[in-house]
């Protein structure tokens, strides 16, 4: 049994949820390969070889980060990388919207074809808050605790939170999409 207080356990839940999101984002990009042509056309150096290599490697990097977060491996480092990625992704989305880009971000592969809007920024802000909270809670104990060390009740809580959150997020994207078409 883990010897963690409730707040430290909440940090583990945040890390596990974050790991699940990164793993799913990476796997969806591999299984539902997005068409990056519109996205690349909106970038200043979009046709460069480096951008192409980065877009090809991104799903594997996200999946690996998700596994690290779920396993609790190098949790301080993996949470720091997650924070940097989320800040970078948010800056990237902001830049695209400022350039008038009105297509999907492919954040979750080709299944994520909703135009970039407020829901994307809110999602990234919530993920960033979760990652920061988890990183701060690592100091409280239970550092590098993997999913196999966590009680089944906590794992079920993460699954329920992610399920409800993803349904709510999808609904918000649908509403946002309807508004942008009107």
Write out key terms for the chains shown.
182 residues; 2% strand; mainly alpha; 6 helices
Structure description:
It is a single chain. Helix 1 packs across helix 6, helix 4 runs antiparallel to helix 5 and helix 5 (118-137) runs antiparallel to helix 6. The protein is mainly alpha-helical and 182 residues long. It is built from six helices and one strand. It has helices spanning 6-31, 37-41, 49-71, 75-98, 118-137, 152-181; one strand spanning 107-110. Helices cover 70% and strands 2% of the residues. The radius of gyration is 17 Å and the shape is globular. The model has no long low-confidence stretch (mean pLDDT 84).
Overall mean pLDDT stands at 84
Q: Helix- and strand-based class? A: mainly alpha
Radius of gyration: 17 Å
Characterize the overall form.
Answer: globular
Distance between the amino and carboxyl termini: 54 Å
**DSSP strand (E) fraction?**
under 5%
Report the order of strands and helices: HHHHEHH
List the total number of helices.
Answer: 6
Query: In terms of per-residue confidence, which ranges show pLDDT below 50 for 5 or more consecutive residues?
Result: none
Biggest sheet statistics? none
- Overall helicity: over 70%
Q: Strand tally, please?
A: 1
Short description:
This protein has 182 residues and is mostly helical. 70% of the residues lie in helices and 2% in strands. The protein has six helices and one strand, in the order ααααβαα.
Tell me the layout of helices and strands.
Elements: H1 6-31, H2 37-41, H3 49-71, H4 75-98, E1 107-110, H5 118-137, H6 152-181
